[in-house]
Amino acid sequence: MRHVIALDVGGTGMKAALVGLDGTLLYEERRVTGRPYGPDAVVESILGFARELRAHGRERFGTAAEAAGVALPGIVDSEGGIAVYAADLGRRDVPLRELLSRELGGVPVALGHDVRAGGLAEGRIGAGRSSGRFLFVSLGTGIAAAIGIDDRIEAGARGCAGEIGHIVVRPGGPACGCGGRGCLEALASAAAIGRAWATASGDPTADAAACARAVEAGDEVANGVWRAAVDALADGLVTAVTVLDPRTLVIGGGLAEAGDTLFTPLRGAVAERVTFQKLPAIVPAALGDTAGYLGAGLLALDLLAAAAAVRPPLRGRRT
């Protein structure tokens, strides 16, 4: 059976699948990214996992994968095939596409940013399907977004479109990992909420999920921490809505698992802030943590479709 490899590389784990050319999910697997951690270990774990997936496809389906798609966190030069800074690679300019293609028998390989890959999947087969224009926002350790336009994701001129986590919503506010202050990510990510709740509760092990549970239990201090984060998030989202005018906001990532504890106040806070803008639907993502590798699979299928489109038509024999 003809198929492609789909691989989603995270900071600590990898999720992968073999996907049929009709989009059917044929096989799923997970691995640790690289242990002991370090640049060489991470790269080798990615290549090793890809080799295993290729071997499994040959054994089970009688043919090797025809292409591969890989989703990576960080900064990815998709056109150049370079992982500029991703996960625990810990270095710049890793020629990951070339390395993977060599390991996989020379097949074409697509690289993509993990959130944009997840947005691609949500747009084509998930919560953004049929929206036409949507914004997929991932709320996890950090905050990033994918700008959906019909069946594609806008990467930007340099591959950095959608980094709404670094919109400044509180000038002079807490320091952000990007070097700025008052960024949305420093105030409303799961990591930021976890830090704020650990301080407010006096429990250094507390995280965002614990804060959400305390909110649901009626804890007023937790509610104050949660509300401050929701307000910051709403400010960032309204900025994005003003610039992009999406029909739908698809919210994913670990923080979205809080369900109505997040979505009810967030919808209200966004509605309070819009003036002339059209209020988009705000919906939870549908694909969970499978979105990254499903999007990677779509990138690989798109490679094959593009190659088929430029092939010259077959000519009949001359008589």
Major beta-sheet overview: 5 strands, mixed
Physical arrangement of strands within the biggest beta sheet: 3-2-1-4-7
Overall mean pLDDT stands at: 91
Helix content: 25-40%
Strand content bin: 15-25%
Radius of gyration: 21 Å
Structural class: alpha/beta
Give structural notes.
- Helix 3 packs across helix 9 and helix 5 packs antiparallel against helix 7.
- The protein is globular, with a radius of gyration of 21 Å.
- The protein has 319 residues and is an alpha/beta fold.
- Strands 3-2-1-4-7 form a five-stranded mixed beta sheet. Strands 10-9-8-11-12 form a five-stranded mixed beta sheet, covered by helices on one side. Strands 5-6 form a two-stranded antiparallel ribbon.
- The protein has two domains: 136 residues, Nucleotidyltransferase, domain 5; 158 residues, Nucleotidyltransferase, domain 5 (2-Layer Sandwich).
- It starts with a strand and ends in a 9-residue tail after the last helix.
Features:
alpha/beta; Nucleotidyltransferase, domain 5; 5-stranded mixed sheet; 21% strand
Précis, in short:
By secondary structure, the protein is α/β, with parallel strands linked by helices.
Please write out the topology:
Layout: E1 3-9, E2 13-20, E3 25-32, H1 39-61, E4 68-72, E5 75-77, E6 82-85, H2 96-103, E7 109-113, H3 114-125, E8 133-139, E9 143-149, E10 152-154, H4 185-188, H5 190-201, H6 208-216, H7 220-244, E11 248-252, H8 260-273, E12 281-284, H9 291-310
Parallel strand pairs: 1-4, 4-7, 8-11, 11-12
Antiparallel strand pairs: 1-2, 2-3, 5-6, 8-9, 9-10
